Amino acid sequence: MGPASLSLARSFKQYHNNLNYSDILTLDKHLIGSSRTRSSNSLITDSAAGATAFSCGEKSYNGAIGIDDQFKPCGTILEALKLKGYLTGLVVTTRITDATPASFSSHVKYRSFEDLIALHQLGHYPLGRVVDLLIGGGRTHFYSNESSIEYGSKGSRLDGRNLIEEALNEGWNYIGNRTSFDNAEIGQLPILGLLDDFDIPFEIDRNDSIHPSLKEQTKFALESLNKASENSNQGFFLLVEGSRIDHAGHYNDPATQVREVLSFDETFQEILKFAENSSVETLIISTSDHETGGLAVGRQISAKYPDYKWFPEILNNVKHSGEYLTSKILNYNGDDLENFLKDEIILKGLGINDLKDEEFSKLLQNIESPHYILNELISIRSQTGWSTHGHSAVDVNIYGYSNKKDVFTQILTKLNGNRENIEIGKFLQDYTNVDIDEITSKLVNTTIEPRN
């Protein structure tokens, strides 16, 4: 999420809620600086190297999960705090084994080794269990492709193991759906929450009766970690990621992007409320690992002089993500595809009532892969610009808060202005007074790639 994502979401919120132009996001009120995001081998980072910069305080190569650029495991802030007596948690909206949560809780050579990452997260590596609470998607990486009855579908593990059963036998409390989430007892750690086989649906598509929101998941995590640590001299560390902001950027889907950013903003507000009401010294740092999509809030769509306009009302009419609508198209088995596309997808799904013949012809010609075409229909009409389906090298914002004045002064001293991403990781280490080198020395025998 880059600065343009905030501009997009802020303007959309003002339009959607009929607010004055002076109304801003909660994040806006806590902006303290910006961060440069390059990795050790590219000016444009991927999420793995970006997260490793925060978790280890070191630059590494694209794809590295808690690994330095010499292919050696590097201790993370989460591991160091756990060994110091803190409780720890991860809450995300992608797979819990995805790059960002993985970079704090595991060590593998490449981010695609998600089955191995799942093992590390449950404690099957030299440090033992270091995460007390895991909430996200990615159930598929925790059970075998031979297991199908209990979870409703087959997993992706090839080693025949059912890590969910193993976790239950090791004392984990398992949350696998909305009902068990709602009924879960606050503070009963460790908690393994796998709320979807893959990623949790985009906010614009999310069915509240099936998937809790990021804000709900975060509130539960905060209350659980807080209760479980109330009699401890140490507190807790919680990582929260609005993970699918990135996916909406990859897909160049502006209507989905704004809902994801606003969902994260609401979550940030919930975290602030917790900190403000706590008598315990609390530090909040929020940033991004990179920008995605090369987003621009404004776009020249003809050769004539640009008219300096952007149309949030176009995004307001969209009811579902391009991902969701693509799935509907690919699963359609009726005998009137053209009317289905015009009525269910274009009109009801995207809110478009002025589709051009050439646009419809292009959609039909690419009916096996319509995702980007659907999103482009919205981007053109709203005059939203994109430069890539990948990441960009744009600097990203840093936000900070503490309920203690002297701590907030430390944040400003160390992170204001323009910083390198590893400075955020180093600041967390300095603030908590942990010895990352000591953790690194304990990781020498870590299995960092799958054994054939």
TrEMBL record:
This is Alkaline phosphatase. One of its GO terms (molecular function) is metal ion binding. Its cofactor is Mg(2+); Zn(2+). Its main location: membrane. Zn(2+) binds at residues 246, 250, 289-290, 391. Pfam families: Alk_phosphatase (PF00245). One of its GO terms (cellular component) is fungal-type vacuole membrane. Belongs to the alkaline phosphatase family. Binds 1 Mg(2+) ion.
